[in-house]
Amino acid sequence: MTIQRDSWGSKLGFIMAASGSAVGLGNLWKFPYITWENNGGAFVLVYLVAVMILGLPIMMGEIFVGRAAHLSGAPAYKKLGGLGWSKLGYLGAAAGGIILSYYMVIAGWSLYSFWQCLGWSLGGYDMPSSDAFGNFLSNGPLQIGLTLMFTLMNVGIVLRGVGRGIESATKIMMPILVLLMLYLVITAMFMPGRNDAFAMIFSVDFANMPAMGYLEAVGQAFFSLSLGLGAMVAYGSYMKKTDSITNSAIWVVSLDTLFALLACVAMFTIILSVPELKAQVSAGEVGTVGMLFITLPQLFYTQMQGGVVLAPLFFILVAFAALSSTLSLGEVVASMMIDRRGWSRKKAVLITSGVVFCGSIFAALSLGASQTLSQVTFRDVPVLGIIFSSKSGILGLLDHLAANWLLPIGGLGTTLFVGWFLKNDFILKELGVKNSNVVFNLWIWCLRIVAPAAIIALIIAVATGKDFS
Ligand code: PFF
Question: Cβ(404)–Cβ(50) under 8 Å?
């Protein structure tokens, strides 16, 4: 890895940058819409359990690997474990490239929403018709153009190296995003759909959850916490030996989970409060996929003091939250080529971004612009039907493959590496702790038994077609 290995300016710097990577479209866009699709309650509970027993220990494991090796990606695993383990780094980079290719498309929507809100703020809000979002999605050139804009922004920053830039930017933007989110939720609390929203999110009924919900909840925990592909290994490699891994990981996991839940509460409340929206979403007239971009303007322009100013600002912050995530993904992908092929940073960033953008074009056209790309499915194909479930369209297929399979498998690799391969004495020495204590034992046993058992059991269950409901 050729980036200069400086370290975060402070523990807060790490927490902000790592939460910048974690908090993104996964929280604001994906969590609310898949929670809605899986009928809330039980799905949220499984998600929270996955965050606790898989997310937190694996995040600590990844940060540990980066910090102990003082390297990121494949070289980190190679340094601590030898050549065989470096494959884990390469698998992560591949998953990163896949995620980046469709993430850029959704990130582009935030630019469009910003633009649209600016228009509404200046010219007055007019609730869009139910086919407006569908028309937007199926506008191929627009989708590709927005994706390209976002890709260029990302390339510009990753080219410079992510070091200090991310840290200072996230330190300013993240707190504003937290405040704005709180204001949004407080405003939503005065809307009539509040109780229904809480009931949907927090009352648990397993009979109501589709079988795939278990896999999706676990996959979402990995996706949202940026785990399973080495992003936290990279960020951990800049961490000072004196900063506590446990403490930092708890902060990042809590912030990320809070964001996801707040986004869900705000969006569900709006949908369940506005009869037209509720009817449109329930009847599937507006795809749940666009929830973030469809529902929030409603809140800003019809319920909120100062909404005309805050709406465009909010979508700038969404774009920023997405950007602080794409930076970490871009870094993981580019650094693989720097490490593996010895490419310069410039060459690695330009070529990998070019390849990823080609993938993005397919994802961008799979939202309605191209019938073939939008409808492709492996539902009835042996093996592939199990892997891809009933998903259709390139974007949906890529998201399902990466989040629900590649990331959990990458995470499984980290649990085996830290839990079984590395020696306890080595880990304790690295952590600067003389004897193992309760927290250490809990962590290691989670990595050794609980987390791998949960991931393997889930994979076997899904692969053998078990219906959980
Ligand atoms: N955690 C990000 C989100 O929730 O939007 C997505 C992501 C970023 C996944 C970085 C994986 C990653 F390495």
Answer: no
CA-to-CA distance for 444 and 420, rounded, in angstroms? 9
Structure tokens at 128: 């869009």
pTM over 0.90: yes
Q: Which residues pair with 392 in a beta bridge?
A: 377
DSSP state of 82: -
Burial class of residue 266 in the structure, from the number of CB atoms within 10 Å of its CB (0-12 exposed, 13-18 middle, 19+ buried) = buried
What pLDDT sits at residue 442? Answer: 94
pLDDT digits over 3-13, tens only? 455 667 677 77
- Ligand 1 atom closest to residue 332's alpha carbon, by position in its atom list: 13
Instruction: Count the Cβ atoms, other than its own, within 10 Å of residue 463.
Output: 11
**Pocket-testing residue among 224, 264, 401, ligand 1, by greatest number of atoms within 8 A of Cβ:** 224
Q: Does the beta carbon of 110 sit less than 6 angstroms from any atom of ligand 1? A: no
Structure tokens at 199: 């009931």
CA dihedral 53, 59, 61, 65 (to 10 degrees): 170
Distance CA 271, CA 275 (A): 8
Residue 231 Cβ inside 6 Å of ligand 1? The answer reads: yes
* φ, ψ dihedrals at 442, nearest 5°: -60, -45
Q: Which of 3-17, 308-322, 417-431 has the lowest mean pLDDT?
A: 3-17
Q: Among 218, 221, 226, which Cα is nearest to 62's?
A: 226
Ligand 1 contact, 21 CB (< 6 A): yes
Nearest to 81 by CA among 436, 326, 377, 426: 426
**CA-CA distance, 235 to 212, in Å (whole number)?**
32
- Compute, in angstroms, the gap from residue 151 CA to the centroid of ligand 1: 16
C-alpha span between 111 and 100 (Å, rounded) = 17
Neighbours of 39 (CB within 10 A): 16
pLDDT digits (tens, 9 = 90+) for 119-172: 999 999 988 887 888 899 999 999 999 999 999 998 988 887 666 666 677 778
Q: Is the CB of 95 under 6 A from ligand 1?
A: no
Q: Which helix (H) or strand (E) holds 168?
A: helix 163-188
Give me the domains of the chain, ranges plus CATH numbers.
11-463 (1.20.1740)
Q: Is 327 in the pocket of ligand 1 (CB under 6 A)?
A: no
d(CA 394, CA 29): 18
Dihedral sign (CA 385, 390, 394, 397)? negative
Q: How far, in Å, CA of 239 to CA of 67, rounded? A: 6
Mutate to test the pocket of ligand 1, among 98, 99, 104, 320 (most ligand atoms within 8 A of CB): 99
